[in-house]
Amino acid sequence: MTQKLHPALIGFTVLVFIFLIGPLIIVVGSALSDTTHLTFPPQGLSLRWFANIFEIAAFRRTIITSLQIAFLSTFIALLIGIPAAYALNRYRIQLPGWLATLFVLPVLVPELVLGFALLKNVAVQFNTPIFLTLVFGHSLLVLPYVVRVISASLASFDFSVEEAAISLGAPPLRTFFTILLPNVRSGVIAAFILAFITSINDVSISIFLTGPGISTLPIQLLAHMEQFFDPTVASVSVLLMVLTVGVMAIVERTLGLTFLAK
Amino acid sequence: MTKALSIQSITAHYGTTKVLEDLSLEVAEGELVSLLGASGCGKTTTLRLVAGFLQPTSGRIQLGGVDLTRLPAHRRDIGLVFQNYALFPHMSVADNVGFGLKQRGVAPAEKTKRVAAMLERVGLAHLASRLPGELSGGQKQRVALARALVIEPPLLMFDEPLSNLDAKLRVDMRVEIRQLQRANGTTSVYVTHDQEEAFSISDRVAIMHAGRIMQLDTPETLYQRPANAFVARFVGFENLIPMRVVERDGAKITAEAAGGVRLTLGLEQFGAIPDSFTLACRADGLVASPDLAMEGIPATLGLRTYLGRAYQYQCDTPAGPLLANGPLTRPLEMGGQAKLVPVPEQCTILAAETA
């Protein structure tokens, strides 16, 4: 049974794919260029701009910092977000409706404002270490995504399953880990990936909170671009993509990307 | 293992709304008692209170003489069967059934043996390694039943366990549930809104309304001798005729209903009859007769409907609108006159209520 596709639909689909994939091809192409300036299509093929990233100490440092911040802030957001999403769904009827909205509010505040506010009211006010402030800011940034995504997977969870486990003698906390968590695993993985990507690519908040000696990769990239217009920019972008895909692959291997199928 | 359940003067609230009022219920050891009523009558609340998912405002719950009221739900040792099965979606059938044993620290070898034996009993041994998502509704409910039974709980509770199954399977499953329950002799509480289901499998049925038990009795008594107008209507007495005794004459009384309708009733049939009472009869117990000389309630016949076993008439009488049946051999004309004759064996007397 084959269905006939309208030619216009095929054409439109192709356009959408070009729109989605085109920028990636251009960035990857530019990164491979042998020239000292950004060009596309690449002239000559070379990996020297990738090597260049690792020759510059600031890039080496910030890659590590960015990874640390992304992992830590994602971990903190999951630690807060999973119980929050659980409570919001489990006690939906008892809890006031605006409480769920509260967890989405950080998304509504422009990130620049959030970054500036954190700088003024946390970093300067309490003179907190730069790294900790960055982790705190990023946790705040990714928390709404974590709560939303996990809430979505909890929405289809039947809480009487939890009661069944309790009635069979499992204490509430054990029920949470052996019954609830395995059933929202896909949501947790999705939240992890989304939070990780959001953190590692963030500029708006990091630009306020980075300081002497500590910077993140996107901020370092910005600083680099102010002085040089070489393909390093493109190669760092490719590196960020690879990092993201790499993390997704690891997560998939260890936990399974079943959420894509669900 | 099995024990009696005693619910003593339980009152419960949802927020400020009172959902149960001073409810008491004794379920004897090995007995199956159903809580029957429309949604919102408090039957599920009662079950959840006993399970420990809700806390009563006041009152006590005891199982085998032990006070459960303040015990957390996971330590109450009660087998629960849910309406939507509530199987663990990420575990195989065998792991679902074995979950309770695992919580009790039963050794793996022993656990495997008991799970296998239980699956054999519910006829699902061949599906032990399947996930719940791969089972039909009836199979899921069997797994849920096995999971609750395998821990050999002193009390089993069912929350509308058959509502999600189709009609044929419902009848099969309720027989199966009753057989398993009787074989184990497990004290059981069964919540349902389905009268036929409750009556068919219960030792006793509690008919509930607005957070109270209206009557707790054997199905036979409930069906034939309801204690009040609510239960009478619930079990299908369509005609409730308020009456007043005007004359007592030995073994007979004469009573008058609205519109001056008079009936003679025998005391040997009804026992003592109070001065003011309600005569309750189903349409089957009120026969429409074209013989106007008979003693009965004069009526104008309205719409006639065909029931298969009889014709049914919507009747207009001085005592108000009534529902009567007539034999198939002799259909009566709509709009005609008839006498409605109560069949004493199919009628019952309700003491007049203040409500």
Describe this protein's structure:
The complex is a heterodimer of chains A (262) and B (355). Chain A has 262 residues and is mostly helical. Chain A has a single domain (53-260), classed as MetI-like (MetI-like fold), CATH 1.10.3720.10. Chain A contains 13 helices and no strands. Chain A is globular and about 70 Å long. The two termini of chain A are 25 Å apart. Residues 257-262 of chain A have low confidence and may be disordered. Chain B has helices at 43-51, 93-103, 108-121, 137-149, 167-184, 195-201, 219-224, 229-234, 267-270; strands at 5-14, 17-27, 32-36, 58-63, 66-67, 78-81, 155-159, 187-192, 204-209, 212-217, 239-249, 252-257, 262-266, 276-281, 286-289, 297-306, 311-317, 320-326, 337-342, 347-351. Chain B has 2 domains: 5-232, 3-Layer(aba) Sandwich (Rossmann fold), CATH 3.40.50.300; 237-351, Nucleic acid-binding proteins (OB fold (Dihydrolipoamide Acetyltransferase, E2P), Beta Barrel). Chain B is an alpha+beta fold and 355 residues long. In chain B, helix 2 packs across helix 3, helix 2 runs parallel beside helix 4 (137-149) and helix 3 (108-121) crosses helix 4.
Question: Any key phrases for this structure?
Answer:
heterodimer, A: 262 residues, mainly alpha, MetI-like fold, globular, disordered C terminus, B: 355 residues, Rossmann fold, OB fold (Dihydrolipoamide Acetyltransferase, E2P), 6-stranded mixed β-sheet, 5-stranded antiparallel β-sheet, 20 strands, 25% helix
- Output the CATH class name of the largest domain in chain B: Alpha Beta
Helix and strand sequence of chain B: EEEHEEEHHHEHEHEEHHEEEHEEEEEEE
Q: What CATH architecture of the largest domain in chain B do you see?
A: 3-Layer(aba) Sandwich
- Gyration radius of chain B, in Å: 25 Å
- Percent helix of chain B, as a range, is 10-25%
Describe the sheet with the most strands of chain B. 6 strands, mixed
- What is the strand arrangement across the widest sheet of chain B? 6-7-8-3-9-10
The domain count of chain B comes to: 2
Q: Report the sheet-strand fraction of chain B.
A: 35-45%
CATH topology of chain A: MetI-like fold
Oligomer: heterodimer
Which class of secondary structure composition applies to the elements of chain A? mainly alpha
- Categorize the overall geometry of chain B: elongated
Succession of helices and strands of chain A: HHHHHHHHHHHHH
Q: Work out the strand percent of chain A.
A: under 5%
Give the mean pLDDT of chain A.
87
Our measurement of the CA-to-CA distance between the termini of chain A, rounded to an integer number of angstroms, reads: 25 Å
